[in-house]
Design brief:
The structure is a single chain. With about 90 residues, the protein is an all-alpha fold. The chain has a domain at about 45-88. The protein is about 60% helix and about 0% strand. It has three helices and no strands. It has helices at about 5-15, 35-60, 65-85. Helix 2 runs antiparallel to helix 3. The longest helix is centred in the middle third of the chain and has 26 residues, at about 35-60. It is elongated. It starts with 6 loop residues before the first helix and ends with a helix.
Length: about 90
């Protein structure tokens, strides 16, 4: 079974923040970001960090998940967080 949820939905559900998508994309012909796009990117990083902390904590303290599954989920959260925060 596969389950997928989008980032925008996750932020709304867990953090109760409505993300606008108007600044999410930039034209490939225009490599300069607008001020609003920089703000969007900065807030995106904050939300990713907050989601990571909340989800990791929820997984660690869940009594309905077995230990092996918890370990796998925490490792996946860590990998995803590192991938997002280490964009070089």
């Amino acid at each position: 079974m596969s389950f997928s949820v989008g980032y925008k939905t996750l932020v709304k559900h867990i953090l109760d923040v409505e993300l606008g998508k108007s600044q999410q994309r930039t034209s490939s012909r225009n490599d300069k970001l607008t001020r609003n796009q920089y703000i969007y990117a900065a807030m995106d990083g904050i939300y990713v960090h907050d989601l990571y902390l909340l989800l990791e904590e929820e997984i660690r303290h869940s009594s309905s998940l077995n230990q092996s599954f918890k370990s796998q989920m925490i490792a996946m959260c860590n990998r995803q967080y590192e991938r997002v925060t280490n964009l070089n």
